[in-house]
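quick one before i forget lol
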Amino acid sequence: MPAAGVDLRPRDFADLRTRDRVTQLLLEHGAATAAQLGAELGLSPAAIRRHLDAMQADGDVISREQSVRGRRGRGRPAKVFLLTDAARIRCGTHTYDGLASSALRWIAQQGGPQAVLAFAAEQVAALEARCEAVLAGAADDPISRAEALAAALTAEGYAANASTIASGGQLCQHHCPVAQVAAEFPQLCEAETEVISRLIGTHVQRLATIAHGDGVCTTHIPAQSGRAQTGNTVTTVRTDR
């Protein structure tokens, strides 16, 4: 059990890191539309707007109509987003990954490995709840649920897709918001894989992770033989060359 006084509910470092990247892009470009930001970050329109809405609520970003030179076409001009003066003043070298790693080291020192596991589970609990709501209408078979989960994860900024392969199915995540931290603390990947297993409803195998240096986080969904498996289990299989 975690040591008394260990706070397992810090701010969402994944969101902070993504918003830091948005800030850096706005610093470089001066102004950008949501579509431009989403394209550069590999985020869906829903995901980038969620971050922009939060940044506007925090007073870090403002929006205005995009200036159009020459004759303007029909329809309202697109909105562009800019940093506020307060956000620019705070700009500098951000170290959210370093801060997250330091926080996890402190948790490990104070509460041991179980505290890190508890933290990791707490971090993915809200994500699991949101994805579970999206999967409510999905079919019961693992592949259909994996496809629905991929759409839900993409909306969360993971740029995910699911496909059917000869040995079953495959869920790929092309973006990992916490890759640098997870490289030191694989418990974050383990907790996420357990969530995938529970949501899909079957045993899964994590074959590769961005945090370990792979290009994509790849989770294999073995083909179902006979009756569906009961009980969700997780296997991590490294594919190092």
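fyi The longest helix spans residues 113-134.
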